[in-house]
Amino acid sequence: MSTYRAPLKDMQFVLRELAGLDDVSALPGWEEVNAELVDAVLGEAAKFAREVLDPLNREGDRTGSRLENGKVTVPPGFDEAYGKFIAAGWNGLSGQPQYGGQGLPHIVSLPVQEMWNSANMAFCLCAMLTSGVLEALRIHGSGPQQATFLPRLTSGEWTGTMNLTEPQAGSDLSAVRTQAVREGDHYRIRGTKIFITWGEHDMSGNIVHLVLARTPDAPEGVKGISLFIVPKYLVNADGTPGERNDVKCVSIEHKLGIHASPTCVLSYGEEKGAIGYLVGAENRGLEYMFTMMNHARLAVGVEGVAIAERAYQHALEYAKTRVQGRAIGQRSGDRVSIIHHPDVRRMLMSMRAQTEAMRAVAYVAAAALDKAKRHPDGKERHRQQALIDLLTPVAKGWCTEQAVEIASTGIQIHGGMGFIEETGAAQYLRDARITTIYEGTTGIQANDLIGRKVAFEKGATAFAVITDMRALDAPLAKAGGEFELMRGNLKQAIDGLEAATRWLVETYPTDANVASAVAVPYLKLFGTVAGGSLMARAALIARAKLGEPDADHEFCRAKLATARFYAEHILPRAPALAREITHGASSILAIEPERF
Amino acid sequence: MKVLVTVKRVIDPYVKVRVKSDGSGVETANVKMTMNPFCEIGVEQAVRMKEAGVVSEIVAVSVGVQQCQETLRTAMAMGADRGILVETGVEVQPLAVAKVLQKIVEKEQPKLVIMGKQAIDDDANQSGQMLAALLNWPQSAFTSSITVNGDAADVTREIDGGLEKLTIRLPAVVTTDLRLNEPRYVTLPNIMKAKKKPLEVVKPDALGVDVTPRLKTLKVEEPPKRSAGVKVADVKELVAKLKNEARVI
């Protein structure tokens, strides 16, 4: 069984060289976020992930959370680990200073989240949901609501949940039926919510449910949904948890993965009706939910990076220790560990190269999110906002789709042992499998990308990103023969992305249906090329650093090799995807639904 | 009372240590470094004593390269009030460290010095004892418990075959063993606060100490690779092999 080691060197490289940590440090309010501070934070987080969270991951998967008489029991050790997690102040990493948070930028919180997720994804979903509630109340909560809930949610003393889904309202939230009836200064909430992550547990003093519901006279559809705070325990005047609210966990789901995370069916108002407090104005609930979508979707993208990294580390350890067969071409002599076999190396390299590219895309997106928030120049804020809007579905959809492929490759490296649960490789695939689904499926992300992000603005931001990518051509040409193949493959990949983008911009306004049919291939194409372009940049930087005596030469050589692998083995997928998009949409819709 | 704790920057225990190709030492360039675990126990002890109201100020000291400042920041994030780095680029050896610390102790006048019993890099296990000798102070090495009572401290030492309980006069030098405590996880707010705590940098020259190495490393090499085992036919053969080949009986 492997132990998680945070890939600190790669994280630091990506933060400094690709995502522009210095640019974020230069933003107002983040002056003290320098490389030393980030190293200290990442170093301690790495230790906590390795020593506290990682050892609970297997047991959490095996035991899972259980429901008995309305009470959820979390796996052994989780309660204590959560106590340590909040005592160490990690929950408040990006929280606002006036509520006890540290106010650190996304560029710092994202690598830390990656560590938590690599070590124990099911565990850290709890904190992730809390941060979603925090973000929603920070933007849309009233003064008294903020004063009551934000300090305790920031510390993690209380946790939060998001209640969107109902049996008939999944990806289509306009079908929400939960009722909210006004009663003086509050509402009575009645209805059933499903898929509520960490919806019930005893790890925190209170659970703050954010619930989407309809008031009796609300208009039909998405414009008739309001957002409510429904605390598990009503809050006393002195801020302490008081009487139990009318919300019950009636069952928890039996899932493919993230077993430790209790996914609850919550029943509201079986007795008098649960007491809920309106957030903002009536009928604007969905709009409020969307304001934190970028943030939450990027966080799920990072889960993809995290699981891919963990699956890679697990497979790598097995490949180094499992002795099987002789090296190819050798008839006698010692048997070797399977890492000596070229096909195993191919698989390891593909896991590693893609994970590094995904990390680069995710961290660059985090930097854009920070700049969009705080850049002093309004034009630049606007540019960064457009960039993060474009990159969010890519980071979410592409990183998670790749994570599933990578975790699957991890199993393949283990051979038959990978199919056996005790080996541990299967858990990563099972856990990864949810990431392409929740917080908007890959299909939803891709439709968001081609519709609201690319076609809506006639490809303006996408073409700007493509122009930035093309700027690498000259330095790659200058860097010499070693980079020729990378340069050629990158150029073809960018050509493909440009052609596909042009096709989408032309097709979408006249036939959105046909464009949507190839939305997912376009999302994958975008991710593949964005990752390839960042890997090429990383390669150029690594090459330059090899000329510096104090640089980490071993790391730089490995980065160069990994970037070469990406250019030679992953980037060639791009022209194929582009052709699939520009010449393959109609066959997808060739058989009508009734003929299936 | 004031406590001085010493912290050494060493290779992270989770890193696979590699010998330099020329055999002159181990590779430390671009290797993840951390606080020596025994020093961490020392800092933790000082912090617990401060939390218990026994200690009023904790000064962390490190001797070594500029990057030891990071190690001092960690000590301050754990709870030390300020840091002193005695900065030098040369390899620091136990006696030099003890002499540097002697000067710092003379200046700072702590009532107690807590040190790791040894550092996990060279495992020398000497600086604490040397410092006590130079200061002519009582010492308690390999300490697994410590309780201060006025001008004395009751300590338990881990010795061969058992535990030794002693009362030592203060000021004294105490070196920590593994079982003294389990260091806490540094909290995020304290990492942020540690940035603002004072950190003083001095050179050994300014203290009047010559830290030039007196010991010369001849050669460093990897331990021999473990060779494959053999199966023995009976106890007689086993005994013979232990006696003649392994020469352990």
Topology:
The complex is a heterodimer of chains A (596) and B (249).
Chain A: H1 8-18, H2 21-25, H3 35-53, H4 57-63, E1 66-68, E2 71-73, H5 78-87, H6 106-140, H7 143-155, E3 158-163, E4 179-183, E5 186-197, E6 206-213, E7 226-231, E8 233-235, E9 241-244, E10 247-252, E11 263-268, E12 274-279, H8 285-291, H9 293-321, H10 342-374, H11 378-413, H12 425-432, H13 442-455, H14 460-470, H15 473-478, H16 484-510, H17 512-517, H18 519-545, H19 553-570, H20 573-588
Parallel strand pairs in A: 3-6
Antiparallel strand pairs in A: 1-2, 4-5, 5-11, 5-12, 6-7, 7-12, 8-9, 10-11
Helix pairs in contact in A: 1-10, 3-6, 6-7, 6-9, 6-10, 9-10, 9-11, 9-12, 10-11, 10-18, 10-19, 11-12, 11-13, 11-18, 13-16, 13-18, 14-16, 16-18, 16-19, 16-20, 18-19, 18-20
Chain B: E1 2-6, E2 9-11, E3 33-35, H1 37-51, E4 57-64, H2 68-78, E5 82-87, H3 94-108, E6 112-116, H4 127-135, E7 139-149, E8 152-159, E9 162-169, E10 172-176, H5 188-194, E11 199-202, H6 204-207, H7 235-244
Parallel strand pairs in B: 1-4, 1-6, 4-5, 5-11, 6-10, 7-10
Antiparallel strand pairs in B: 2-3, 7-8, 8-9
Polypeptide structure, described:
The complex is a heterodimer of chains A (596) and B (249). Chain A is α+β, with helices and mostly antiparallel strands and 596 residues long. Chain A is globular. In chain A, a hairpin with a 2-residue loop joins strand 1 (66-68) and strand 2. In chain A, helix 9 (293-321) packs antiparallel against helix 10. Chain A is built from 20 helices and 12 strands. Among the domains of chain A are: 159-282, Beta Barrel (Butyryl-CoA Dehydrogenase, subunit A, domain 2), CATH 2.40.110; 442-590. In chain A, strands 3, 4, 5, 6, 7, 10, 11 and 12 form an 8-stranded mixed β-sheet that branches. Chain A has a two-stranded antiparallel ribbon with strand order 1-2. Chain A has a two-stranded antiparallel ribbon with strand order 8-9. By secondary structure, chain B is an alpha/beta fold. Helix content of chain B is 29%, strand content 27%. Chain B has helices spanning 37-51, 68-78, 94-108, 127-135, 188-194, 204-207, 235-244, and strands at residues 2-6, 9-11, 33-35, 57-64, 82-87, 112-116, 139-149, 152-159, 162-169, 172-176, 199-202. In chain B, the strands form 2 sheets. Chain B has a 9-stranded mixed β-sheet, sandwiched between helices. The longest helix of chain B is centred in the first third of the chain and has 15 residues, at 37-51. Chain B is globular and about 65 Å long. Chain B starts with a strand and ends in a 5-residue tail after the last helix. In chain B, 38% of the residues are buried. The mean pLDDT of chain B is 95. Chain A binds chain B through residues 5, 8, 32, 36-37, 39-41, 43-44, 47-48, 50-52, 84, 87-90, 92-93, 102, 550-555, and chain B through 14, 29-30, 32, 34, 70, 73-74, 77, 185-192, 194-195.
